[in-house]
Design a protein that fits this description.
heterodimer, A: Aminopeptidase, seven-stranded mixed β-sheet, 7 strands, 26% strand, B: alpha+beta, two-stranded antiparallel ribbon, 17% strand
Chain lengths: 194, 114
């Protein structure tokens, strides 16, 4: 049996096969726009800022290449179950003690993947779909590392609930910025996903 | 060195003549004094006049544009020494995936189409 959800980049051509009635895809700019606007109106995750972002900003950020949005769709109902956005970030390290530095690659800046936003609609919460979005992010990050060095995944949590979500998933809390969390690439690399 | 005072009114809407005292308290006006070379100030006066703006308005506008740009670019994360050492140690000793993470991967394969 096919898995119930699909996660795709927020682009008409990537979503066509999932959201068009025939499931055949095709020239679907026209089908995509009303679908997405209807899904945005129905979406509610419990954090109004994340709902608002979806309605007002996500397509703008996509167009201006500030963040790459990905959406999770329940295939049977064509409903938007969740979304996340990714960007790349560079971490600029202060001078490290020489003995520590010796064991690390000497990049001036450490490249990282940044989770901008991540949300699951209330109708789909409590089923581990947030974890599924994270695994999807690990999968994409792992693919990026085939082409470019990435030290890991960074997120600046907006509140305690978000922070504990990431901590439950083994993100490590910065001692300096208590809402900044990082999961090293080496941890992700050990997972059986491609 | 010359100086320019930039005033930034948080609420640029015209205020009614008579305000309630609590409303007035919420109107914030911040000042920033910056020093610059006489040459830069001459150029500033020149371009501000060309654009039909006061020097203060010109500088405030320029700051606002720069702040917006910096915010878009803030994907550069500067780490202090303490945070850098923490990150270095984390990268050198990454945690192994725990059981939950391994289970999440298996669940993912059943939940999400490739």
């Amino acid at each position: 049996m096919d898995a119930p959800f699909a996660i795709r980049p927020l682009r008409a051509q990537d979503l066509a096969a999932i959201i068009t009635p025939s499931g055949q895809g095709g020239p679907d700019e026209e089908a995509f726009k009303p679908w997405f606007s209807g899904q945005c109106d129905a979406f509610s995750c419990g954090d109004s800022a994340l709902d608002r972002y979806l309605r007002t900003q996500i397509t703008q950020d996509l167009r201006r290449d500030i963040a790459k949005p990905f959406v999770m769709v329940e295939v049977a109902t064509r409903r938007l179950a969740g979304y996340y956005t990714l960007s790349t970030a560079s971490v600029r390290l202060d001078d490290l003690p020489p003995d520590t530095f010796k064991r690390l690659p000497r990049y001036p800046d450490f490249p990282a993947v940044l989770i901008g936003r991540l949300a699951i609609d209330h109708r789909y919460q409590g089923r581990g779909l947030g974890s599924a979005l994270l695994i999807d992010i690990y999968r994409r990050t792992k693919r990026i590392t085939l082409e470019a060095a990435v030290l890991g995944i960074i997120v600046d949590a907006t509140d305690d609930a978000a922070r504990s979500f990431y901590e439950k998933h083994q993100f490590q809390r910065s001692p300096v910025n208590p809402y900044r969390l990082i999961l090293p690439m080496q941890t992700i690399r050990q997972l059986a996903i491609e | 060195m010359d100086a320019v005072d930039c005033a930034a009114k948080e609420d640029a809407m015209p205020r009614p003549r008579r305000e309630r005292p609590e409303a007035r308290r919420q109107t914030k006006e911040e000042r920033l004094q910056v020093r610059m070379t006489p040459d830069l100030k001459r150029q500033l006066a020149d371009v501000a006049q060309f654009r039909g703006l006061s020097m203060s308005d010109f500088v405030t506008l320029a700051i606002s544009e720069a702040v917006t740009k910096a915010n878009h670019e803030r994907h550069v994360i500067e780490m202090s020494r303490e945070e850098s050492v923490w990150l270095a140690e984390l990268l050198l000793n990454p945690p192994a995936p725990n059981e939950r993470m391994v289970a999440d991967v298996e669940r993912y394969k059943h939940l999400v189409r490739p």
